[in-house]
Amino acid sequence: MIPFDYLPGAKQWVGGLPRLVAHLGPIWIYGPHGSGVSTLAKWLADQRGTKTIENNSDADLAPWLEKNPLGVVASKQAKDATNVGARFDFLELRLWAISDDPSTMQKCLEHIAIEEGIEPPLPPALACLPCNGNLRELRNRIVRWHILGQLPEPFVSDAGPQLFDAEDIASNLHIMERTLLYRALRRSYGNRAQAAKRLGICRRQLYLLIGRHGDPVRGELPVSIGPKRLAKFRHNLIGGNNRH
Is residue 58 part of a domain? Predict the structure, then answer.
């Protein structure tokens, strides 16, 4: 487990943990997925001699709080965003995302590496790529690099036509699509759900793009010839050349 004082934004709240333990009322902890919310909530509940619960729905939470007035709620949203959160007098703590405090990324990576039995030095790229706030993503980066040898690059450098080298729109859109897909897959270390989120598309659309362009992280080749607009342009181009 990563020490609490290593977590993003810890300087703002870690000194107040003794007061949280002594607080005579329920506590609401929230933050980005994978930021340590559940871990901290469980630790606080153990220290307070009470229980913790994930905030799934208002119907589940209200009766639980009646039985556990000093309980600790782990949530992905602020208490004011829920009806139950507004009805109970919580002491609220927000955990930061790594993007809120990027200076903590290197220390978190080094500690995770020690937990995984990986000796330094770590590749600089592990700490250079974007990370929206997920400590679990950092662990996945290290494991994928150490076990699978997958170390995505910060920038795409694949062989083939460069962006805007072609004159036609169809070819350039195809290359741009591939560039954005590869970058998202690399920055997500092959995690396709995360790549789809980065691109702002659904999983089905992502798999269509992978079928069209391949996956550089997993070494998968394209299985389709590309979009209809590109096939039509190539057909017309070949037909035009034949007529001459």
Answer: yes
